[in-house]
């Protein structure tokens, strides 16, 4: 299969070694306003209710988003799902820019659909990312964004739309919001919205819709992908759970591999899927909203972690621009005298190591490698169960899943 290969980018001028994401304060304020504020006599029951939902989720049970659960859900889950969607979408910002420019040239609205949207965290993340894009290309500000949110819960969507209206206030695009209350598993996207969407997202909802029926997930995902415009993308994001959600993502990826844009850099069988007790997932350190940290401190609970599995699909083969590179699928493991990390590529899942004395100008990026990075590797030596960098071996960071712009603000 022919794939377009993009040349290696110029070296980065600044890389952050230890990245910690601080949840955006402006989004925190919106959440605080929605859920009701900081008073202890309110925050304590809210935190307890939210942690009960978290325990239900980890038991693999579903719960409805209604008037009793929606505020605890927003308080506890929205920061995590928003952040995950923000990083996944920003990792393909070049593709999103391409889609925006195509719509500008066609003089047509860009259509974004948030499937099984709940309280619209993925849509909110998309709007937040658009703000950054608009700052760098002001001509795009004339583009109209038609943003469609769909869910079975009318209550969840109403709260989500409140968040969307607030988060879009100062973002210089023209937005049109549409709500669809129906079952995601039965949706006919083109029929419902009248056109093929450019970006479709399903975030943290596969299990809610299909439970463990992976075949139904694959059939449905293929149907959604076919409904997306020829140069559009379909994004799936799930919690990092190896026996459930991450497993779903890896199996969907294998079934629809010819359309994969990310995270995979190859089209062979998923090597991680073959390894017992292993799963493809990514994560980063973060500083959550202060109200969430305070509430969890009051009840002795833990804030959720930013870790997830994801898959981006497209019918446009030009978007598959990382073929033959490596995706880092572990954190950087620093030990006395050496650095280690795992990657996934066409050669499988492999362990790489460098002795710190062998760090040179050719491979100095290795000191900054993080989970989710796409890297170029060349000139390493094969050992018994790992590959070793020497002084003349090459490593360059090509793309970061966890975009540096959100760590530098």
Q: Can you walk me through this structure?
A:
- This protein is α/β, with parallel strands linked by helices and 409 residues long.
- The protein has eleven helices and 17 strands.
- Helix 1 runs antiparallel to helix 3 and helix 3 crosses helix 5 (121-136).
Could you give the topology of this structure?
Blueprint: E1 20-22, H1 25-35, H2 40-58, H3 70-91, H4 93-106, E2 110-115, H5 121-136, E3 144-151, H6 154-167, E4 174-181, H7 189-193, E5 199-203, H8 206-210, H9 214-227, E6 233-239, H10 245-255, E7 260-262, E8 282-287, H11 290-299, E9 306-313, E10 326-328, E11 333-335, E12 338-345, E13 348-355, E14 374-378, E15 381-382, E16 387-389, E17 394-399
Parallel strand pairs: 1-8, 2-3, 2-5, 3-4, 5-6, 13-16
Antiparallel strand pairs: 6-9, 7-9, 8-9, 10-12, 10-14, 11-12, 12-13, 14-17, 15-16
The low-confidence parts are: 1-14
Percent of residues in beta strands? 15-25%
Fraction of helical residues: 25-40%
Question: What is the N-to-C succession of helices and strands?
Answer: EHHHHEHEHEHEHHEHEEHEEEEEEEEE
Give the overall silhouette: globular
Based on the model shown, name its key terms.
single chain, 409 residues, alpha/beta, nine-stranded mixed beta sheet, eight-stranded mixed beta sheet, 11 helices, 34% helix, globular, disordered N terminus
Would you kindly provide a brief summary of this structure?
By secondary structure, the chain is α/β, with parallel strands linked by helices. The chain contains eleven helices and 17 strands. β2, α5 (121-136) and β3 form a beta-alpha-beta unit.
């Amino acid at each position: 299969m022919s794939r377009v290969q993009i040349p290696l980018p110029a070296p980065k001028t600044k890389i952050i070694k230890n990245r910690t994401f601080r949840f955006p304060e402006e989004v925190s304020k919106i959440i605080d306003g929605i859920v009701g504020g900081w008073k202890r006599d309110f925050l304590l029951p809210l935190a307890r209710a939210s942690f009960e939902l978290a325990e239900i989720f980890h038991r693999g049970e579903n719960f409805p988003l209604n008037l009793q659960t929606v505020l605890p859900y927003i308080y506890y889950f929205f920061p995590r799902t928003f952040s995950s969607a923000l990083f996944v979408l920003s990792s393909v910002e070049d593709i999103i820019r391409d889609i925006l420019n195509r719509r500008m040239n066609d003089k047509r609205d860009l259509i974004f659909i948030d499937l099984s949207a709940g309280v619209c965290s993925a849509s909110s993340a998309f709007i937040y990312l658009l703000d950054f894009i608009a700052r760098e290309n002001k001509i795009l500000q004339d583009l109209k964004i038609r943003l469609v949110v769909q869910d079975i819960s009318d209550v969840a969507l109403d709260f989500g739309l409140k968040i969307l209206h607030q988060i879009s206030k100062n973002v210089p695009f023209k937005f049109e919001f549409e709500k669809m209350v129906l079952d995601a598993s039965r949706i006919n996207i083109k029929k419902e919205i009248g056109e093929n969407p450019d970006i479709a997202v399903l975030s943290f909802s596969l299990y809610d819709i299909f439970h463990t029926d992976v075949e139904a997930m694959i059939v449905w995902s293929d149907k959604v992908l076919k409904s997306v415009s020829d140069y559009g993308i379909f994004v799936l994001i799930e919690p990092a759970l190896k026996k459930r959600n991450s497993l779903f993502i890896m199996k969907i990826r294998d079934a629809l591999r010819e359309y994969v844009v990310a995270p995979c850099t190859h089209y062979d069988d998923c090597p991680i899927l073959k390894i017992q007790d292993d799963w493809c997932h990514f994560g980063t350190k973060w500083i959550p909203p202060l109200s969430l940290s305070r509430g969890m401190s009051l009840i002795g609970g833990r804030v959720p972690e930013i870790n997830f599995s994801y898959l981006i699909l497209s019918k446009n083969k030009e978007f598959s621009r990382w073929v033959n590179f490596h995706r880092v699928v572990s954190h950087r493991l620093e030990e006395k005298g050496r650095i280690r990390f795992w990657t996934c590529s066409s050669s499988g899942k492999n362990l790489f190591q460098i002795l710190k004395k062998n760090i040179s100008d050719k491979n100095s990026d290795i000191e900054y490698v993080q989970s989710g990075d796409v890297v170029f590797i060349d000139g390493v030596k094969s050992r018994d169960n790992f590959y070793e960098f020497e002084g003349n071996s090459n490593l360059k960071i090509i793309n970061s899943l966890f975009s540096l712009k959100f760590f530098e603000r």
